[in-house]
Design brief:
41% helix, five-stranded parallel β-sheet, Rossmann fold, disordered N terminus, 155 residues
Length: 155
């Protein structure tokens, strides 16, 4: 089931000239974690830093959100998830038309060298050790968005 905040990222629309709209320029982040408290804490923290947030509790739910919300800029996912884990989610994103270039940050409570290797092979943008400080996470999100934009020539 999608959480109430999963409706937070709407497709970007052109704004009228001279009308600032922070919501339209703020990055949309999909947070994927089975722990509602973790999702809520990160959501509040990242929203305070200027992000728009959608959430999911597992990989399958995250894929449904991605298909429903094409405006997601970055996925931040826990590695250990029920139903479909974060690594499987990452690999599925890389094989899905229209999502192949979507930046993904994989977070884990442990350093698992095999998982890290597989994550790199699947095109993981960042592999972060939990707990992740929201300010640091925001900087990683911003960095990945800038990298993606520079690859497209939009720096």
């Amino acid at each position: 089931m999608l959480s109430p905040s999963s409706t937070g990222c709407t497709p970007r629309r052109k704004r009228r000239e001279g009308t600032p709209n922070r919501k339209l320029t703020a990055p949309c982040v999909l947070l994927v974690d089975e722990d509602r408290a973790v999702r809520a804490l990160l959501a509040v923290s990242l929203e305070a830093l200027g992000c728009r947030i959608v959430t999911a509790g597992n990989g399958e739910e995250a894929l449904r959100v991605l298909h429903a919300k094409p405006s997601v800029d970055v996925v931040v996912t826990e590695a250990a998830l029920p139903v479909m884990d974060g690594l499987e989610l990452l690999c599925t994103i890389r094989q899905t038309d229209g999502l192949e270039q979507l930046p993904v940050i994989l977070c884990s409570a442990s350093i698992d060298e095999m998982m890290m290797k597989k994550a790199v092979e699947c095109g993981c943008g960042r592999y972060l050790l939990k707990p992740v400080h929201p300010d640091f996470l925001f900087e990683q999100i911003r960095s990945l968005i800038q990298q993606k934009a520079s690859r497209r020539g939009f720096t």
